[in-house]
Amino acid sequence: MRNVERLTSLKSELLDIFMSMQVAEHEQRSRTAAQRNLRARRGIELHNEFKRLSRDIAQLPEDEMH
Fold first, then answer.
1. Which helix (H) or strand (E) holds 58?
2. What is the pTM of this model?
């Protein structure tokens, strides 16, 4: 009976360790995805800003550009 208790305890401990590892992995993937999405969003915003500035500059009369 004692061996069964030890085995059950060991199984439970291993499951806890496995679950902790899964949670940590999931959190890391989530952080990485969030960083990647933020970089992409910033890149898109920067691209749009450059397009907007180019359009605004193109609309200026020649004498205002000097």
1. helix 2-58
2. 0.61
